Sequence to fold (304 residues):
Amino acid sequence: MIIAITGLNANDNPGPGVAVIRALREEFGPALTIIGLSYESLEPGIYLDTVVDKTYQIPYPTAGTAALKDRLEYIHEQEGLNLIIPNYDAELYNFIKISPLLKSKGIKTFLPNHEQLEVRDKINLYEFGKKHGFSVPADQKVNSIIDLTKAAEELGYPLVVKGKYYEAYVNHTADVAQKSFHLLSAKWGLPVIAQQFIKGTEINIAGRGDGKGNTISVIPMRKLYITDKGKAWAGITIENNDLIKLAQKFVKATKWKGGFEMEIMCDADGEFFIMEINPRFPAWIYLTAGAGQNQPAALVRMAL
Fold:
């Protein structure tokens, strides 16, 4: 099998790619060839010889679908790809759009559609929660400092300010919240999301949906150690049927296809609040292989 994988950065804000590859190599061994797809020349995964066999640079998502299509066709001519697993939120729109073309070339993917991608977006998550009976913190879309001030008046402090794609900061004062707004809007664009702060225990769930409403695998995890960016650096699996049912309810409501991550906050009363739903495998996905439910390997089998 020849599988191309993105998300090769492995620093304090790690991408999922290296963890996905570790899980696949554990399952398929020497029968597997990994083609790394990188956006920058300094992504650490490129230089790990036991992880990636060969690497090609691909254009940034902002270059559009035509540039991505042309580059992937060239790579396919050189390598004969069987499957592509994209691992960044921002690149999924383009990969989903060209997936029919990739399929016609013999390159498989296993991705949600654009409607599924949109419904769990941070911008739409609160409305999604209301419609399907999920507990989601109140939030507001913020396009200016005036919007931020209004959101803070309604939601109060501490206030969580989140980027459109990545990163979130808990802010205790207006000055710090404004700094977070400028930082995140410059990095990820508008709108920025202001979200109600929920105090509690942070839990993450990695899951897989088959695209028909069935849940293939669910692994809940509690973070034991995080980086300064809030990324899990160490964690432990949790056995909790309520968390499993929560993930199954999400998959059934959306008919989710592919991997996903739910970021959950459990408050003092034991209520589970959905903070985010990420539309791809998390950077800690190798834990699912260690727990006996190798989700990346399951995705490969279903895609092929």
Q: What stands out?
A: The chain has a mean pLDDT of 94. The first strand starts at residue 2 and ends at 5. The radius of gyration is 19 Å. The longest helix spans residues 89-104.
